[in-house]
Amino acid sequence: MLEQTQLLVDKGEMLPLMEEFYTIQGEGFHKGTAAYFIRIGGCDVGCHWCDVKESWNAALHPPTRTEAIVKNAAAYSNTVVVTGGEPLTWDMGPLTAQLKAKGLQVHIETSGAYSLTGAWDWICLSPKKVKLPTEEIYKVANELKVIVYNNDDLRFAEEQAAKVNSECILYLQPEWSKREKVIPVIVDYVMKHPKWKVSLQTHKYLNIP
Ligand SMILES: C[S@@+](CC[C@H](N)C(=O)[O-])C[C@H]1O[C@@H](n2cnc3c(N)ncnc32)[C@H](O)[C@@H]1O
Ligand SMILES: Nc1nc2[nH]cc(C(=O)O)c2c(=O)[nH]1
Ligand code: SF4
Ligand SMILES: [Mg+2]
Predict the structure, then answer these.
(1) For ligand 1, mutation pick of 48, 173, 177 (most atoms within 8 Å of CB)
(2) Cβ of residue 39 lying under 6 Å from some atom of ligand 1
(3) Part of which pathway (predicted)?
(4) Ligand 2 centroid to 9 CA: how many Å?
């Protein structure tokens, strides 16, 4: 990468953009809401069941000026979801400042594994055992969305729920490839522990991005 480009990436003024698309938020509290998704490349958390492994290698995704990303987003939607990859790999300050200056609602999907940057209207924290969230994000997360692949993930979910703020909404979401097996487990668990809600990847049922 050119030295100049690297400097801009380091400052969060350019970001490795994998894709951007206008769709319906499929998961969590805002499911069903039209939103413009910005998918930033780069993640070294390494979830074995990750459904966007193509995002992991940042070098495969072109460094893109935040101004260009913002211009596209503002043309489509009032709500923007920044995801990845792991967006907090990068400094989210410049991107989110510009999105908010356009009056947009700015949401993030994050594992919380790196320090929290950016200004957010909604933080979806989806913690991962392999790289735990930083302490700071538990205080500000609006929703906790734990992916359930096996029974131990319910133990992990309770451990994480004990760390979030009291306003945080709690979701259990089936890991997609295990959904037939874990949906009954989640349904049973939520009925017994109603502080939790079910989240499904509804976009996959709707066949939309
Ligand atoms: C691809 S991740 C990108 C954002 C960030 N790296 C994170 O993990 O939160 C977006 C959301 O999809 C969830 N996810 C990824 N793979 C999944 C799968 N196979 N089944 C269910 N949810 C999955 C993640 O836990 C996260 O909530
Ligand atoms: N429709 C739709 N909703 C989503 N919610 C979170 C997603 C993500 O990959 O971060 C996602 C996604 O990829 N598509
Ligand atoms: S943290 Fe997110 S993007 Fe990274 S591997 Fe896990 S699910 Fe995939
Ligand atoms: Mg997705």
Answers:
(1) 173
(2) no
(3) Purine metabolism; 7-cyano-7-deazaguanine biosynthesis
(4) 24
50 lines ligand 1 (CB under 6 A): yes
Choosing from 25, 30, 52, 126 the residue with most ligand 1 atoms within 8 A of its CB, the one to mutate for a pocket test is 126
Is residue 25 a known part of a binding site? yes
ipTM metric:
0.99
Range of the domain at 71: 3-206
Mean pLDDT per 10-residue run, the chain (209 residues)?
95 98 98 98 98 98 98 96 99 98 98 98 99 98 99 98 99 98 98 99 98
SS3 state of residue 191: helix
Ligand 3 close to Cβ of residue 47 (< 6 A) = yes
pLDDT digits (tens, 9 = 90+) for 53-96: 999 999 999 999 999 999 999 999 999 999 999 999 999 999 99
CATH classification at residue 181? 3.20.20.70
- CB-based contacts of 201-209 (< 8 A; 24+ apart in sequence): 201/26, 201/27, 201/173, 201/174, 201/176, 202/24, 202/26, 202/27, 202/31, 202/32, 203/23, 203/24, 203/26, 203/27, 204/26, 204/176, 206/24, 206/26, 208/23, 208/24, 208/26, 209/21, 209/23, 209/37
